[in-house]
Amino acid sequence: MKAFKKHWCVRPLSYMLSLYLVVLPLVLTFLGGGVRAQAQVTDLTRQALPQWAVLDFSNDAGYGGAEIGRQASDSFVLELGKTNKIDVVPRAQIIAAVQSLGLSLPLDTVATQKLGRELNVDAVVTGSVATVAFDGSPRRATSAVIIRVVDVNTGLLINGAIAQGTSSPRPIPSNDDDALVNQSIDNATFASVKQIVNYSLPKGTIMQDEDENTVLLNKGTKHGMYDGLDMVVTRRGSEVGRIRVSRAGTDNSDAVVTVRGAGIAPEDVATAIFQLPHYSIRGKHVVAAGGGSVVADNTTSGNSTKRSSFSGVGGILASVLIGALLLTLVKRGSSNGSLAGAQPGNPSAVEIGAFDPTGLSVVGGQEPGLQNQLQDPQFPQISHVANYSPVAIHVTATTGNVNPFLWQEYHVYRPDFTGQNVVIISGTTTTIGLPHPGQLPVLSQASQQPLNVWDDGSDRPVNYTTLSPVTNTTLNVTSGVGFVVGTGIHTNLIGKRWQYTVDGLWQQSTTGTTGTTTAGGLPPPGNASGFNLTAKVSTNSVTYLQPVILTPILFTGTTPNRVFLTLKATLSADDYVVEFGSSPAFSPKKTFKPFNSGLIQYTAASQFAPRNGPDFPFFDPNAGLDMTQVSSQLGNPPVIYARVGVRDSRNGSDNGRNPYLYSPTVQLPAALVPVVANARGR
C-alpha cells in the first residue's frame, strides 16, 4: 500500500476521481434518461466500424512474465478505442471462442482465420513485447512492441507496427522498475496505434488484362502504388490470385500475375499485402534492417515522452464525461433524421452495354432489364432501330456508416427524374394527389445488402418508402397501376452527363419482438417511429452514351499492309479506341487511338440519331494501318477480331468508373488478314 501511495499516477487519479464525484451527478441530472438512450445509439454506431479481435500479446523480452504481454495488449486496446475507428471485441468473448474451437495459443494462420470467422470480425491482432531495457541516470525503461493485423478472409497481413516507447526519467527506486516498464509499454502502444490508424493499404481495381501475364490497375503512384508491391486480388471477398506491380505510373499501373488462383478478371479488387519492415534486435533494442531507428517511437514525434493526460483510468472517466456532453449536443441537433452524419458509402456509377465482353451486363445472376425504347409504341416517331443499343448504368453503394442490420432501403435519384405532377398512392388503398417532398428516386432497393441496381434510362413505376415531412413517419409511395412516373425518357438521356445521388432509409432503433429476435432501444428525439433518412451522397459523373456502329465492311483496303477504317461519331463520346485481338476475349490484344482526334465532331449527332455523327478516318487516310505488324504481335492468328470503344473523357480516365463502351465484336475481312505459313492449319 505504501508503494502504491508513492506511485506517480496516484495524485492525478485522485484529482480525476474527485472531479468525477462532483461533476457526474450534475451531468446525470442535466441529461436525465438521455445518457442511457444515447449510449445505446453509440453502441449501434460502433457496430458499423471494422471489428478486430486483439489477442493477449506474448512476452519475448526476457523481463517479467505473461502479465507484461497482457499489460501491452490492454494498453493497445485502450489506445485503439480512443481513435473511434476500430471496434474491439471484448476479451471474454475471445477467450470463449478460443475454448469452443479447442485452439491453443499462439495461433498459426489457419487457426487465426478460424477464430476470426467464429467471432465474425474483420481482423485478428497478435503482438509481442519484443524487448525491455533500462538505462540512464535517472533510470528509465525502453520497451518495443511488434504488432500484426491479420485479415480473416485471406490470412494475410493488412496492417501492423514495430514501435518502441521510453518512460519519463524519474528517480524511482530499482524495486519499482515495473512502473517504468508499464509506462514505456504504454508509450510504445500509443506510438503503434498512431502508426496503424494513419496507414491505409493501397487498393486498386483490375481494369483489363493486357495479356495473359499482365493486368492494368486503375491506381498509380499518387495512390500509394510502387514497383515491386505485392497485392492480393479478391472477388466478393474471396482470393482469386496475386499480382506484383511491375510499372507504377502516376494514375495507373501495370502488374504481373504471380499466382493465378481462380483467375483474375476486370473489376476484381487488388489490395496491397502489408509487410512489416525488416528488423533486428541489438542490445535489447529493435532496430531497422541496416541500422537506424524503428518505425514508430514515442520520442521521435517532437512531443513529450509522457502519455496524454487523458490516459489510463482518469482518461476513461474524462472520456465518459466529455462523451456524454457531446452526445447531448448531437441529441439536440439531429431532428432532421440524419443523426450523426449518417450516409451511404462508396457510391459509384458505371456504364455498361449489352455487348460488354466483361460480362458486367449480368451480375450476380441478375439481368439489368436492358430495354430498347424504340420498340415502345409510345415513341412511333423513332424509326431507325439501328441508332440505338441496350445500355444501362450500374449504380452501387453500401450502407456506409449505418449498421447494415438497421438499414431499410436505398433510393437512387437522377437529376431529370422529378415526377412532381403524377398521382401516387399512399398506403394500400387511398389514392391521393400527394405533393411529393422533393425529387423521386428513379430506382430503389429494399435490402440490407449493398446497393446493386441498373438504370436503362426508361421511365418506370415508383415503389419506395420515405418519411413524411410533417409527421416524420414512414410513407409508402407507389405509382398507380399503369402509371409511369418521371419526366426522363430513354432518348432524352442520350449524350447527357450527370451524377446520381443516393440516400437511404434506416431505423435507428425499435422496441418490440419480431419472431424470436428482440430489438431494444429508444427512438431518436422527435421521431416516434425511429426511422431516419440519411444524407444524400453523389456518385461519380457518367454520360449516357451509345456504342459505335461497327461492321466488317467499314474496314477497307486492298492489302493487309494498308487497312483503312471510317467511323461515324457518337454523341458526347470524345475518347475512341480500336482494339484487335486473336480471340473474341481480346487476350492478347493491340489497341489504337485515332490518328487525329481533332477530326472527330462528337457533338454533331442528335438524340434521335446518336451514332450518326459526321464520318472521320480512324487511321491515317493516306498510309492506313499495317495489319501485318498487328498480326505478328498477336501471334499470327488465322482470324482477327475487332471492336471500337468510346467514352466521355470529362468523366475521367479511370477505367474502373469510366470504362469504354464497346461496339459488337466483328471479324476483320479475310482479305485484310495476313496469311502466314502454317497459320491457317492451326
Task: Describe the structure concisely.
The chain has 682 residues and is of the alpha+beta class. It has 10 helices and 37 strands. The chain folds into 4 domains: 49-201 and 278-309, Rossmann fold (3-Layer(aba) Sandwich); 203-272, Beta Barrel (Thrombin, subunit H), CATH 2.40.10; 339-543, no CATH class; 552-672, Immunoglobulin-like (Sandwich).
Describe how the helices and strands are arranged.
Layout: H1 2-6, H2 10-31, H3 34-46, E1 51-54, E2 58-59, H4 66-82, E3 87-88, H5 91-101, H6 109-119, E4 123-135, E5 140-151, E6 157-166, H7 177-198, E7 203-211, E8 214-217, E9 230-235, E10 238-248, E11 253-259, E12 269-272, E13 279-282, E14 285-288, E15 296-297, H8 312-332, E16 345-353, E17 391-398, E18 407-413, E19 424-426, E20 430-432, E21 443-445, E22 451-455, E23 463-467, E24 474-479, H9 490-493, E25 497-507, E26 512-514, E27 517-519, E28 531-533, E29 537-543, E30 555-559, E31 562-568, E32 575-581, E33 589-592, E34 615-617, H10 627-633, E35 641-647, E36 661-662, E37 666-667
Parallel strand pairs: 1-3, 1-4, 2-4, 6-15
Antiparallel strand pairs: 4-5, 5-6, 7-8, 7-12, 8-11, 9-10, 9-12, 10-11, 13-14, 16-17, 17-22, 18-21, 18-25, 19-20, 19-24, 23-24, 25-28, 25-29, 26-27, 30-31, 31-34, 32-33, 32-35, 35-36, 35-37
Structure commentary:
- The protein has 682 residues and is α+β, with helices and mostly antiparallel strands.
- The chain folds into four domains: 49-201 and 278-309, ABC-type transport auxiliary lipoprotein component (Rossmann fold, 3-Layer(aba) Sandwich); 203-272, Thrombin, subunit H (Beta Barrel), CATH 2.40.10; 339-543, no CATH class; 552-672, Immunoglobulin-like, CATH 2.60.40.
- It is 20% helix and 30% strand.
- It contains ten helices and 37 strands.
- Helix 2 (10-31) packs parallel to helix 8 and helix 3 crosses helix 8 (312-332).
